[in-house]
């Protein structure tokens, strides 16, 4: 079988010293994460990040820079579970501009609520993080790590209909 990492996109959204996180239901209970999700066919990583941020937080988000590109491996062995889980995630994390809350917009399935947390609160809640990449992305953002969006080249074929 061919190995393929799961490509995800994440929004590192900071406003007045606080970061916008989501609290979501997972198979490991309620967890915290940056607004994030899987990249979908036909979209660039920046487009996917804007979509995921809107779906999970009801805030429009415009990516303006790349905080970093990250990899993490998640392994889980469940008693009585025939299929072990071993997934590698490749995450593109973006910083950008957040818009106003759309109070009439429902949050994505599984998202319980959004939270604005300080870096200290994020560091103190590591045991509740959905991904080890959450804190790393925030720390890199705080250190001033930013890269231009054109670091990622998307060939026009991505937006073309039909098989590649």
From TrEMBL:
Its EC number is 3.6.1.-. GO terms for molecular function: nucleoside diphosphate phosphatase activity; ribonucleoside triphosphate phosphatase activity; thiamine diphosphate phosphatase activity. Keywords: Hydrolase, Magnesium. It comes from the Bacteria. Its cofactor is Mg(2+). InterPro entries: NUDIX_hydrolase-like_dom_sf, NUDIX_hydrolase_dom, NudJ. Residues 2-139 form the Nudix hydrolase domain. It holds the Pfam family NUDIX. Monomer. Belongs to the Nudix hydrolase family. NudJ subfamily. This is Phosphatase NudJ. It comes from Pseudacidovorax intermedius. The gene is nudJ.
């Amino acid at each position: 079988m061919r190995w393929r990492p799961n490509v995800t996109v994440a929004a590192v959204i900071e406003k007045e010293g606080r970061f916008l996180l989501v609290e979501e239901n997972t198979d490991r209970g309620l967890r915290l994460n940056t607004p994030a999700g899987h990249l979908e066919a036909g979209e660039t990583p920046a487009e996917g990040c804007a979509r995921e941020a809107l779906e999970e937080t009801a805030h429009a988000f415009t990516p303006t820079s790349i905080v970093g590109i990250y990899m993490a491996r998640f392994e889980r062995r469940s008693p009585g579970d025939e299929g072990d889980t071993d997934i590698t995630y490749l995450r593109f994390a973006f910083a950008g501009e957040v818009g106003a809350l759309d109070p009439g917009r429902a949050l994505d399935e599984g998202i319980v609520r959004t939270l604005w947390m300080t870096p200290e609160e994020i560091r103190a809640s590591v045991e509740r993080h959905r991904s080890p990449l959450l804190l790393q992305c925030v720390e890199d953002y705080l250190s001033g790590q930013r890269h231009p969006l054109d670091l990622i080249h998307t060939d026009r074929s991505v937006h073309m209909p039909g098989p590649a």
